Every structure is written in C-alpha cells, then in structure tokens.
Amino acid sequence: MTVSRTICLGFLAVIAVGTILLMMPFATSTGTWNDPIVAFFTSTSAVCVTGLAVVDTGTDFSFWGQLFILLLAQIGGLGYMTTTTFLILLIGKKFDLRQKRAIQQALDRPGMSGSSHIIRSIIATTLIFEITGIFLLLPVFVKDSGWQEGIWLSIFHSVSAWNNAGFSLFADSLVKYQSSTLLIFTISALIIFGGIGYQVILEMFFWLCERWNRKQEKLIFSLDFKVATSTTIVLTILGIIAFSLVELRIPEKFGSPNGYEQFLIAFFQSVTTRTAGFNSIDISQMSNAGLFIVIALMFIGASPGGTGGGIKTATLRILTSCTKSILQGKEEVIIYERKVSISLILKAVGVLIGSVGTVIISTVMIAITDPNLPFIQVLFEVVSAFATVGLSTGITASLSSLGKIVLIITMYIGRVGILLLMSSVFGDPRPTQIHYPEENLLVG
Length: 444
Known about the structure:
globular; mainly alpha; 2 strands; about 65% helix; two-stranded antiparallel sheet
C-alpha cells in the first residue's frame, strides 16, 4: 500500500460514503430513495470539486442532501490527506514518516518538515476565507430570500466557491446575479484565492506583515508564487478580452447588459472558467468559438496546491518556457532567473500527455455511447469533468448511464491527478543507475 494508492483509495472511500448518504430518503426533497447513478455521479462531482450535476441541487435534494454535498466538496477541496491529517491532529496523535510522506505528495511540497504547521495553516486559511465570504454574501441573499434561507445560501455558495466546487442552489447558477457587483467580486475572490494555492496565500500574508511592521528585511518570493500569480493574472486578462471580443459583441444574446455589466460578465466568466464552474450567462447560448476558448481555459485550470483542477498554471508556464528556450536557441529553461530542472520538465510533459490522452479517450467513449450529441458539446463536457470545472452546455442530465459513468471516471482522474493515479497502478518509480548512449532524432 503505497502513498499514492492510499490517496486514490481514500478518495474512492469518501465517494462511496457520499453515494450511500445521497441515496437515503432524507437526502432527497421527495423523501424517496435516490437513483444510485444520480447519487454516485453527484457524490463524485462533489468530492472531485467539479460541480457537474444530473439533477437540480436546489430542488431535488433536501437540506440534508445539500449539506452532504457541501461537506463532500469541503473534503474534496482540502484533499483526502489534509482532512485525515487534521483529524489526527485533533485527537492529539503525532505523524509518522509514512504520513509525512503522504502529506508531501498530496500537497506537492518539496520537503516533509513542518507538516503539522502547514495543515493547521491550511485549515485556518480555509475558515478565514469561507467565513469572510459568508458575511460578504449575506446582504445579497438575505435581501432576496430572507434571513433563514439567505444564511444557508451564503454558507453554501461561499464554501462551494472557495473549494472551486461550482455547485449552486439556483437552477441557472448565478445568472440572475450577473449585475451584482458585491456577489461577483466576492465569489471571484474566493475562486481565485482558493485556486491559487495555500503557499501563495501564506507568502502574501507574510509579505503584508513585513510591510505593516516596516521591517528592513524584504521577503523574497518563491518561484511558485511568481509563476502562480503572474500566470493567473495574464490568463484572467486574456479571458476577459476573449469573452468581450467573441461573445459580448452581441449583447442581446445575454439580455442586453450595459457596458459595466458586460465587464462583470467577462471578468466573472474568465475567473470561473478555469477552476470553479459557476456561470453568470447561459453557456448553451455561446458560440462554438466561445466554447473552444472556455475549453482551453478549463484545460489549463488552477495552480498547484489549490482546490482547482486542470494541468495547472505551473505546467503551462514550464511548457511555454521550453518553447521559448528552443526558439531562442538555448539549452536551459529559465523562469525568473531560475533554471528549471529536467525532472520538472519531464513531469510537465507527462502531465500534458496524460491529460490529453484522458480527454481523447473519454471524448471518444461518450461519442460512442451518445452518438446524437454534437462533438463540441461532448468535448466541452469531458474537459469540464477532467479539469474539475463543472461548466456544462446542458447535456449532463441527458447523457446515457454509460456516458455518465465515463464522466465519473474522468472527474476522478482529474481530481487525483493523472501521474498520481499511474503511480498507484504501477507502483512508485525506482531510480536506476543504468545510462544509455545519446543519439540525435529528427523532431518537428
């Protein structure tokens, strides 16, 4: 039982428990037993923080069903190892070497020291952001739904946004709030900080503390921080421009919003497309060009250590820097005056190849099981599932049972990570002392 197998089986165990709970009569609004496929799909979507749904979460599930979905999304967002480690800390036990290695691999950290401190910091950061989001969303939801329902709506959407889960209690997600400045920026902030990674947030916090205390020593940001923040900013700006030029050039398609509302729509879709899965416009009304832009942004996803999926911003940055080095005739890959190791480059290539392969296989399988669906919608659904985004053109519920099972497997692979899953299947890689002669090969 290797560390990778422990993590993969842990996610499966949580999904299984969630499926049983969501099948119970008290979890449905009708008080009857839930369809096993619906419960299985919803549990997987929640644990994998995806947000794809085959039924309306707000009407088909009771309060208890919605609460189970939220708890599953919280566990999925924190990660199986983070959640179990936190429970170990609560009962006062110490970590052994195996648990420290598991935390290192689950959080993609370079070392094993300070594991208990990083877990406490993650939990504290999560609570601070989620509680802040609840209070900021209260004025919006209480105004429309009253105190009792407004409080629950605030809690649900704040936790869902922070964990990049994409679940909403409204049938149209957040379309009716597309012009609400407070809601759009609150949800967007939760999505960005939840998906950018805990290490980036902690470094930002330490930098603010140094500025506040006016210390002479300046904090040197890590390469992770620089890559995650700069890539996130660039992708967000490019997304705003792309949505504005491709989709919002015909504003009548989305209810004729004014200039400021168009900016809110473009900004929110640019943010939520890469990680979260909320939507403030009807995705089914988008053009093929707009859908393909969304597919590209979803495939990239969030940053390492965050609650989102995709190939991650660091992978994109390494691959683009490799291309840049080749074009400049360099033999080293440099990012912010730091050399990227060969092992990281190989890992990035492996993530890309594995991700592309998963998307291709899943798309082909759903095209076979559901041949009547348009190809662009099938590809959109598969990438949304793999990148754990949760956006949909509206075909999720109409998929066949086999098509839904394909999406379930795709969501699971996207959440645990393609390399971690392969490691759990074939075992941990073993170093070798064998070296082979080098030879040239025609490329390109």
